[in-house]
Write a structure and sequence with these properties.
Blueprint lengths: L24 H10 L7 E5 L8 H17 L4 E5 L13 H22 L4 E4 L1 H4 L1 E2 L2 E2 L12 H16 L2
Helix pairs in contact: 1-2
């Protein structure tokens, strides 16, 4: 899909879609910061993998959480946690360790904000797309990107989370 902002959708003030792929949280945050008119009642966000779940990614994800809340305190934000990695990535590899840390951090950040009355939820994409914490190859086009069946399963998990709140 490449980079696309809802400013490319007509009419330009339509907030029904914001799609930005292949970016890191810093770039997404900049998109929100420089396009202050972008607002939504429902935000669905997945970040982390393009910066290998680094501390910098966590920092900018936190900033995105804050931005979406302050733009619309009555809106709901749904963050998808990091997708599982294939068996070919050994347990001790930094990316696997960082993925686990990122997902734990994301849950903790959402809990803190929810306890403060924010409508911020985590969709467990990792378990949705895995079998026993290993990526389910039937749901991926390659080792990173979901295929249509995977996207269908993710959309069902997002919808289920929305309905539960």
């Amino acid at each position: 899909m490449g980079h696309m902002l809802s400013g490319n959708i007509l009419p330009p003030r339509d907030d029904s879609c914001l799609a930005r792929s292949g970016c890191m949280a810093l770039e997404m945050f900049d998109s929100l910061r420089f396009n202050r008119w972008i607002n939504a009642d429902y935000w669905v966000i997945m970040l982390g993998v393009n910066s290998h779940y680094s501390w910098l990614e966590e920092d900018y994800c936190r900033r995105i959480m804050d931005t979406t809340h302050y733009r619309n305190p009555d809106g709901e934000t749904y963050f998808l946690n990091g997708l599982p990695l294939p068996d070919s990535v050994p347990l001790g590899m930094p990316t696997r360790v960082q993925l686990t840390g990122f997902n734990t951090w994301l849950d903790a950040m959402a809990d803190v904000r929810r306890n403060a009355g924010w409508k911020l939820y985590v969709v467990n994409a990792c378990s949705t797309m895995s079998v026993d914490t290993v990526s389910n190859d039937t749901l991926f086009y390659d080792c990173l990107h979901p295929n249509q069946l995977g996207y269908d399963r993710l959309s069902q998990a997002i919808w289920a989370k929305m309905l539960s709140h």
